[in-house]
Amino acid sequence: MNRRRFVRNSLMLGGAAPWALGRWSPVQGALLPPTGVDGARLNAEIQELRRFGGTPDGGTHRVAYSDEDLGGRDWVLARMRDAGFTTRVDPAGNLVGTLPGTDADLPALAVGSHIDTVPYGGSYDGTIGVLAGVELARTLHAENQRLRHPLRLYVFQNEEGGKTGSRLLIGAVEPSELDIVTASGFTIGEGIARLGGAPDPLTAARASTGPLAAFVELHIEQGATLERAGVPIGVVEGIVGIRRWFVTVTGEKNHAGTTPMDQRRDALVAASRMVSAVDEVALRIEGRQVATVGRLEVDPGAPNVIPGSVRFTLEIRDLSMEGIEGVLRAIQARAERIATDRGVAVDFEPFYLSEAAPAAEGLRRAIEGAAEGLGLRHMRLPSGAGHDAQSMAKLCPMGMIFVPSRGGISHAPDEFTEADQITAGANALLGTALELDRALG
Ligand SMILES: [Zn+2]
Questions:
Q1: What domains are defined for the chain?
Q2: I want to staple 116 with a disulfide (CB 3.0 to 4.6 A). Which of 64, 171, 285, 306 is the partner?
C-alpha cells in the first residue's frame, strides 16, 4: 500500500474524511496537517526498533540498562535529532527532546513513554508512545507548523522495573532502590550511570523538568475493553490506586477429633466467609472497583488440627483513594460481624499503597475532541496498570490515550496492535497536542 493510501485508510477508521484534521484550529491562521502523521513510517520504525532486542517470535527483550536498551536509546535519539528536537539525558537518565515553540514564555507541552520492555516481552508497550512523539515533530515540520508551546518528548528509563525515570522526577525514589539488581544484571544506580544520568540522581532529578503545561502519553491498552467494544481510541480516566492489607484471623487451635462442632473457634471457617464477603462487597457497591484475596496461609495447616489462625491478603483497586477507603470500610464491617459470630478476632494491617492518578478533565475532553475531529469512536476507561503518566500527574495535568491490544495480551511476544490502530492513536495524539497548544496558557 502506498503511503498516501495508507494514511487515508488510517484516517478513514470510523468513516472520517482525511481532511477532518484540518478542523483543528488555526494557530496563527494556518490549517493543520491535512494528512496527519505518516503512519507507514511510524509503523516501519516500530519494527525497526526491534533491531535492539527483537526475538524471533515477534517479541522484544530490551530490559532497562541492557546493551539492547542502550542501543535502542541511541537509535531513538538519532531520530529525535532528525525530527528537530534538541536532545539531552536528564539527571534521572531519561532521554529528553525539546522542540522550540513560537512563544518562549510558555511552559513545555510534554508527550512520551518508554522503550524498555519486561524480559521477553512485546514490541508495542511504550514504544508506540515514544515513536509517535517523534512522528508528531516531523508532521509539524512537514506542514511548516510550529506550536506556541515548546514540545517536550520524554523517553523514560526503566518503566518496567518500577517507573524509575519518571518517579525520580517527582522525588519518589528511595535511596535503597538504587541498590536493587535489575533484569539487566546491573543495579538501578549502575544503570542510571550507564545511561548518562547524574551521579546523584535522587537530588538532581527532582524538579528538573521545569514548568510543564501538560503531559500526554499514548499507550496500548493492555486489556481487551477497546477490542471488545470495537472502539479505536480509549480516553483514560486515570490510573487506578492500589492498597493491600494482611488480614489476620485469630481463633483457637484445637483437636479436630475431640472438639465438638458447636465449641470451635475455627479461624479458617471465619476467613472463608470473609473472602466471600470481599467479593460480595466489591460487586454490590456501585463503581468499577475491584477487590481480591490472592493468598491465604493457614496455621498450623494440618488435617487433624482446627485452624488457629489464618492470614490472607486483601487488595483493593479503584480510580479514587476515597473509593478504596469506602470499599475497605464495608469489608471491615462485614469481617467484624463474621468475627463476632464465630468467636474469632480479625485485624487489618496495611502493607502496600500506590496512589491513584486521575487524568485531568480538560485533557480527557481534548482527546475526545481530537478523536471526533478524526471521526474516530472513543470511550472512557480506567487504566488498571501503572504508567509513567502516573508520576507526571504530580507535575502537571495528565492525559492518556489508549489504542486496542489484540486479545488484551501484553508483556508477552504476542502483544499486538494493528498498524492502522497505531496510526489512529498517533493522529489522536497530534490532534490533542494541537488542541492543548491552542487552549493552554
Ligand atoms: Zn508501558
A1: 3-239+356-439 (3.40.630.10), 241-354 (3.30.70.360)
A2: 64
CA of 389 to the centre of ligand 1 (A): 10
Q: How confident is the model at residue 34 (pLDDT cuts 50, 70, 90)?
A: low
Ranges assigned E (strand) in 21-77: none
Helix or strand or coil: residue 45?
helix
Question: What residues have CB less than 8 Å from 38, skipping those under 6 apart?
Answer: 3, 7, 135, 138, 139, 142
Closest CA to 132 of 148, 147, 151: 151
Reported as type and span, the H/E element at residue 219 is strand 212-220
Cβ(437)–Cβ(147) below 8 Å: yes
* Residue 33 pLDDT grade (very low, low, confident, very high; cuts 50, 70, 90): low
pTM of the model: 0.83
- Centre of ligand 1 to C-alpha 24, Å, is 29
* Residues pairing with 380 in the sheet: 235
Among 137, 145, 156, 166, CA closest to 391? 166
Distance 416 CA to ligand 1 centre (A): 13
**8 Å CB contact between 330 and 281:** yes
Dist. CA 47–CA 82, nearest whole Å: 18
What is the distance between the alpha carbons of residues 310 and 273, in angstroms, rounded to a whole number? 12
Which amino acid is located at 422 in the chain?
Answer: I
Å from CA of 400 to ligand 1 middle: 12
**pLDDT (tens digit per residue) in 38-89:** 999 999 999 999 999 999 999 999 999 999 999 999 999 999 999 999 999 9
Region label for 103, one of left (φ > 0), alpha (ψ between -120 and 50) or beta (otherwise)? beta
Residue 37 CA to residue 143 CA, distance in Å, equals: 10
Q: Identify whether the C-beta of residue 137 lies closer than 8 Å to the C-beta of residue 93.
A: no
Q: Which residues surround ligand 1, an ion (CB under 5 A)?
A: 125-126
Helix H or strand E segment including 249: strand 241-250
* Ligand 1 centroid – CA 58 distance (Å): 17
**Cα separation, 439 vs 89, whole angstroms:** 30
